[in-house]
Amino acid sequence: LISKEEIRNQLVNTVDIIPYESKRKIYIIEDGQLMNEAGQNTLLKTIEEPPDFVTIIILTTNKEKLLPTVLSRCVCLDVKPVEKSVIKSYLMDKGIVDYQADMAINFAEGNPGKALMIASDIEFQNRRKLIINTIRDFDSFNSKRIADMAKKIEEDKDNIDSYFDLIMVF
After folding, report:
1. Looking at residue 153, what is its pLDDT?
2. DSSP states of the chain as a string?
3. 36, 4 in Cβ contact below 8 A?
């Protein structure tokens, strides 16, 4: 969860500082749906009257998790996923091979930037291979390989969502 303290320390307390190298200061709150109620209430005053040089962008996959008072002070842009064929063409233009593009598209959720990142990410490819090899062993109940997979996932906790996504696909 994104707490009141994080919103206060990283945004509210710094919003009045004039930018040195540009005309605008942009704050991006990723996963805005993870802000707890206290964090959203802390943000309210700032989004009601931000300084002229400030833009605050709240990204969320579930705007219903935002308080009505926060939503009423925002301009909401509903972004639709990009079609798979468009993403594939984009990836192919970037030099991504066909099979790798198809794999990346399945995980990108309609986001071309995410698809490019996945297709280019060697660590993601390694996670994918680990999951595929382990799932193959489920039929024979190779408990050592399954235990090894669990240990590797535990060591790579920062990417746990990626592992779950891979498991769900396969």
Report:
1. 84
2. -B-HHHHIIIIITTTTSPPSSSS-EEEEETTGGGB-HHHHHHHHHHHHS--TTEEEEE--S-GGGS-HHHHTTS---PPPPPPHHHHHHHHHHTT--HHHHHHHHHHHTT-HHHHHHHHH-HHHHHHHHHHHHHHHHHTTT-HHHHHHHHHHHHHTGGGHHHHHHHHHH-
3. yes
pLDDT > 90? residue 4: yes
In angstroms, the CA 86 to CA 164 distance is 26
16, 18, 22, 26 alpha-carbon torsion, rounded to 10°? -10
Tell me the pairing of strands 54-58 and 25-29.
parallel
Q: How far is CA 58 from CA 48, 64, 85, in A?
A: 14, 13, 28
Give me 59's structure tokens.
């990204």
pLDDT for residue 162: 81
Residue 146 has pLDDT above 80, yes or no: no
Quote the pTM value: 0.61
- Please give the Cα distance from 109 to 125 (Å, whole number): 17
Residue 37 has pLDDT above 90, yes or no: yes
